[in-house]
Structures
1.
Amino acid sequence: MASKVDTLLGQATQSGTEAKAFAELEALGTDAVPYLVGHLSDMRQLPKSEIELNNNADGAFEGIRHYSPSVVHDALAAILNQLTGQNFVVVYNGASLADRQSNTALWQQWCVRNYPSKSPTCLGQAQAR
């Protein structure tokens, strides 16, 4: 899973492959959550400030959720919200560095509680190899 997420995040930062990469990240499902949380420190700029996710919410008035993320972190936070229903600091449409750092810390805490066997991954330590 780690190498798949790494590959898709690389594609997400390349023009022409970003939309497909985000769709594939979402399709990985909840098994990918610790790996996505572990990458929230990724502040690489996105080629397009645009991501669309299926709106699976009960009573949703539209089928697609539209966001304007600036960096990888913002897009991952939207995907994590989609996969888990959790929301901490809203950064999906861009945010300050302080907001992103706060969001990362809250996601990491949540991830460690909910995926204790994946704690190092949640904390981004698996990427530090």
2.
Amino acid sequence: MAKSTSMATDKPKIQAYVAKNYRDAFEVLCKKQARSVSNGVEWLIIQAVDQAIKNGDIPAEILTDQNTP
């Protein structure tokens, strides 16, 4: 059977290089929180952006209704 290449979402994809030990530790953390690694990364990004808005580092207007999860 051929492997499906379709995505379960239409969200943009982000890729990053991370040291293996941090990648492995993050995977353990995600499992403990019952998250996929992808969902864990999304959660971290949302937390960072929300905190930056709260701190006044970036304007809240940068987010639009169509871009929020």
3.
Amino acid sequence: MKVIVTGSLGNISKPLTQELVKKGHQVTVISSKAERHKDIEALGAKAAIGTMEDAGFLSATFKGADVVYVMESLAPDAFFDPNVDAIAAITEIGKNYKQAIEQSGVKRVVHLSSIGADKGVGLLQFHYNVENILTELPEEVFIKFVRPVGFYTYMYTFIQTIKSQGAIIGNYRGDEKEPWVSPLDIAAVIAEEIEKPFNGKEIRYIASDEVSPNEIAEILGEAIGNSDLKWLEISDEQFLNGLLESGMNPQTAQGFTEMNAARRGGRLYEDYFRHRPILGVEIDKDAASKRRGWSLLIHPDFLWNTSLAKTIKRYQYFNYSVNEALHLSEKEEAIINDIIENMEQEYRSNIDNFSQDIIVSQLELLLNYSNRFYNRQFITRKKASSDLLVKLEDLLNEYFDRQNELQSGIPTVKYIADKLNVSPNYLSDMLRTLTGQNAQQHIHNKLIEKAKEALSTTSLSVSEIAYQLGFEHPQSFNKLFKNKTSISPLKFRNSFS
């Protein structure tokens, strides 16, 4: 299916995009930031750069989609801007979505709403407004309203008062259980709902666990080594004043205060408990202690006067991008960990004349194994690599068929890599593993192919062909052509006479 995802690469939209791409859907991700273009395409999706405030852009992007996932958001600093009416701004986005859905002809929509959208209490008024706006769409437009509860990521806001006052502070009681949700669970539910049949207007709540504020304080306290961390209830007035003192927009501060006040006695969750969902993942109290890993830091001076100092630059993966990381099998991971353990053991032993040589040799062994495992990764991920080869071929054909681009000269490896959303070194190493030739050689091969085509099918002079292919000097073209074919361009042309 063709699916449109709003929300750029946020905590929900990114894992949602990854899941949909994994399932074989054609995904377009809408983002207001042009710099996200490369990151979106790296996930296997198409990027559409524009804003939720532009109904025309939304309508054009939605056109032809099987399903559209819509959500509303403002810039993080909007809640602290005294000139921003958050409720009005997000309500306007809802109107833009309605207009775009009608104009594009989309018939299936998944909308990210929220707990409390049934009442619209406090700041949740905008969720109430948008749900009602989208409900006005024609009957043939089917909509699924997903209503997640409080996000686990909201707990980051606790950090300030934990640091300043040694407590988590809120204007509601700490002994009443309330639902919380992981953004990953939200993404999983949305992906599921996109593939399930649509029927009219439907509502689904999403929650991962139900836990009281006191229990949250205990769990977080254990994780950060502060067993005395407590939940502290304060009055609405104190809570509101604290938000205002932090610089929050008065309307937004009042909205947060009213929303939290509705948590007292479970008033905010009445409809949730009437339609209580199956809970997702449970909170793992020992999660912090289960996370393990290591990092290896080597000062450059340590390698001086060693053979590795001269050869370390040959390990091209140091210049790979983060998304081109090495994925190890269990067997490979065990090999790497054994090497690290040997290095650590040597590091912690008494230093002698052999210590440096032994550690450096282990480091070189680690780098060589990493090279071997990357080579394996290029081969075992054959489909992804083959897809990249096809994209490379299409990109080179497109480049050489466009005269305006050729005015910029012969395409560089960096230009090609950027277009393919990979690093130059990763591209060359992958191509070398799969084809025996690096990226530069592939570019030269395409140049020769296009040159032969022009020499054999047109009456253009050799110089004209050279300029047409992006060469600044015909002599450079002649030299490359002869180097690759063992004959000059003119002799190649004469062979057809």
4.
Amino acid sequence: MYPCFDKKLQSTRIFTFLDIINLSGEAVIEVDGERQALQAQQEIEIPHGVAHQFRNESNLEVIFLVISVPKSHRDRVEI
């Protein structure tokens, strides 16, 4: 994920299980309105149905892995 611009949360995903693993760089994750830094090699599990947003607010690239069950294709819901 390249350094990003400020974007408001406009949609969320519907899933049973979502796990985000930050492989390198520093990201910011907002889960249900609470922001937290996610350092390299840290992991976070997002509860079912909770609004979330993953952002790179740094000047460096972030590499991350997302594990979603079921698959996350076409599962966005406008909020």
